[in-house]
Amino acid sequence: MKAKSNVFLVALTLFSAAAPLLAHHSFAAEFDGTKRIELTGVVTKVEWTNPHVWFYINVKDEPTGKVVNWAAEMGSPNSLMRSGWTRNTMQVGMVVTLNGSLSKDGSNRANGRDITYPDGRKLFLGSTGTGAPYEQEGKDADKPK
């Protein structure tokens, strides 16, 4: 009886430890690396949560004049902090240009590759994608399509 109880506890422990892994997603499951986007807008919210940091920007749609709020996924809080980010690196009210990959579901979400500040400073977002330069031929290899 005690052996069955121990086996049950070990199985329960292993299952519980694996459950968070099931909740995590791959880049390719949610985002399309071939559909690049560049958006400029005002930061409205920054969420430092696991497994990824998210930020939101209001972007003006030029043809309609309508302001649309976009969500952008960054890397994990730990990876961002190891690369020099703090909770104050990006703040509400800042204007940023986001380069990233569109969500596969057509929503106003993107996986961020980098942001550029108005003064030209560019910061890597610890993307869950490859993080590699855009895979294009020619002199504009680092520019979105």
Structure notes:
Mean pLDDT is 80; it is low at 17-23 and 130-145. The protein has a domain at 27-124: OB fold (Dihydrolipoamide Acetyltransferase, E2P) (Beta Barrel). The longest helix has 22 residues, at 2-23. The chain has helices at 2-23, 27-30, 77-82; strands at residues 31-48, 53-60, 67-73, 95-103, 109-116, 122-124. It is globular. By secondary structure, the protein is of the alpha+beta class. 22% of the residues lie in helices and 37% in strands. The protein is built from 3 helices and 6 strands. It has a 5-stranded mixed beta barrel.
SSE layout:
Layout: H1 2-23, H2 27-30, E1 31-48, E2 53-60, E3 67-73, H3 77-82, E4 95-103, E5 109-116, E6 122-124
Parallel strand pairs: 3-5
Antiparallel strand pairs: 1-2, 1-4, 2-3, 4-5, 5-6
Number of helices: 3
Share of residues in helices: 10-25%
By CATH, the topology of the domain at 27-124 is: OB fold (Dihydrolipoamide Acetyltransferase, E2P)
Give the strand tally: 6
Strand content: 35-45%
Rg, Å, rounded: 19 Å
Strand order of the largest sheet: 1-2-3-5-4
Instruction: Look at the helices and sheets and give the structural class.
Output: alpha+beta
- pLDDT < 50 stretches: 17-23, 130-145
- Give the CA-based shape: globular
Largest sheet: 5 strands, mixed, barrel
What is the CATH class designation of the domain at 27-124? Mainly Beta
Q: Average pLDDT value? A: 80
The name of the CATH architecture of the domain at 27-124 is: Beta Barrel
